[in-house]
Amino acid sequence: MHRAYHSLTSALSTLRAAIAVASAAEAHRRPAAADLRRLGIDETKFAAIHL
Amino acid sequence: MSAFEFLMQGLGTAADPMMLLYALIGVTLGTAVGVLPGIGPALTVALLLPVTYRLDPAGSLIMFAGIYYGGMYGGSTTSILLNTPGESASIITALEGNKMARKGRGGPALATAAIGSFIAGLIATLLLAFLAPWIVKVALVFGPREYFALMVLAFVTVSAAFGDSALRGLTSLFLGLALACIGIDQLTGQARLSFGVPELLDGIEVTTMAVAMFALGEALFIAGQRLQVEDEVTAVKGSIWMSRRDWARSWKPWLRGTFIGFPIGAMPAGGAEIGTFLSYATEKKLTKHPEEFGNGAIEGVAGPEAANNASAAGTLVPLLTLGLPTSATAAIMLAGFQQFGLQPGPLLFATNPTLVWGLIASLLIANAMLLVLNLPLIGLWVKLLTVPKPWLYAGILLFATLGTIGANPSAFELGMLLGFGVLGYVMRLFGYPIAPIVVGLILGPMAEQQLRRALSISQGDWTTLVQSPIAAVLLGIAALALIVPLILRARGKGEVLSQLAGEED
């Protein structure tokens, strides 16, 4: 039960991070470092992309 | 008839030489706008709306869908070769794709993106074809209150659930809903919010609004950013073909990307980008080569590129079956349907099956065209980047103005185009999302009509809205879609704050 809850919250957090990064990128803004980390994206490498 | 038979019939319609030509124009334009940074499919479809006003409805819609698919294909080219995503759904492709190109593996990166896009587009279009009749069957039992609940759900998800501020999203939505009230009331014949201006009695033209918000507003915003990007195209060295090892490492990400992107695209306001980021996170978790991520891992290109194409097909599921736009491009396509007097939804499948199935089948053909167009003509697409940016923005403004004047020749319409264009620019500048205002304008009158119909049937009893189980469930989901993201956002802020505190310690 605890494991299922943990998986669900982890999946929701990843989804939230993906939504946050997507909306920031679409508005040509730099996404939050914590959201990028959650998605396994290196912050400095992401910053090198010409948004 | 079964979905398969309808699809075969649709293929017959889509194979008509004129339809093939429309599809070819659509995918070519789509690839071009995908390649050009700053111009996306939403802007292009918006620009073409007034121009296609007098063309064949089926052909125009096939062209719009081709642009949407083409945009998803073309975006990867500049991501990989230039580290500049052609459109937002290809941002994550740049992360691994450009590293691959710098290592001399640009060919396999472009190939895995194109083949992955093709496979995802194929599977997702088939999923769309076989899922749509089921959803239509369910939607056919919908009455006014169910439709109203569905639209409330669409309003909430488009404005509040996604994006970083529910307040900004809702502000944009209510602006759209207010604009939708302008004109003559369909039920009573009273003029509303027209302020004695005769031109406002017909209401705000959705086409003008879409062109102003997405074409003018976006062009002004991009031009105003003065981005100084060093356009250094990484040359494609060596073979463009994938090795056996590349194939072995790509096929699973293609499939996973498809099954992540498709439902995300069908989710209201999901947007293709979200699927690409989730696909990247999944591939990074599952990879056997974690050391390559960030340095040119082929899985990081294959998965997200499949996800963004699957997402485009996913977007068409709610659009065609329920008349619900879940992305900016879908909202403009809905305006496209409406300009031909067509209302997407379950009834369209019954009243105009040739058009709907022709459109779905044409996606399969467009997908094959894109594979042929993209890989061999890569040099030609890259050359597009040499077009000076000021020419591009001036061209968009000119084309948008001429198109609107052509469809509605009046100085008032031109004034509205420019006014809304500036509004679109200001909204972008202050971080207000654009899709909710357009969705509010398009769906607002429909939601109002269904609400008033439901209340007429119940003789003014508001509780009727929650007495139908389907409507109650839909309104419940809408409430959750409003509340859960607020909690998640608060939790996210909490996480960031605690991390910051940890770093300070």
TrEMBL record, chain A:
Instruction: State the protein's name.
Output: Uncharacterized protein
Q: Which organism is it from?
A: Paracoccus versutus
Automatic annotation (TrEMBL), chain B:
Keyword list, A-Z: Membrane, Transmembrane, Transmembrane helix
InterPro entries the record matches: DUF112_TM (IPR002823)
Q: Which organism is it from?
A: Paracoccus versutus (Thiobacillus versutus)
Which spans are transmembrane here? 20-49, 61-82, 109-135, 147-163, 170-188, 200-223, 316-335, 355-379, 391-411, 417-444, 465-488
Protein name (database record): Tricarboxylic transport membrane protein
Locate the DUF112 domain: which residues?
20-438
Q: Does the keyword Transferase apply?
A: no
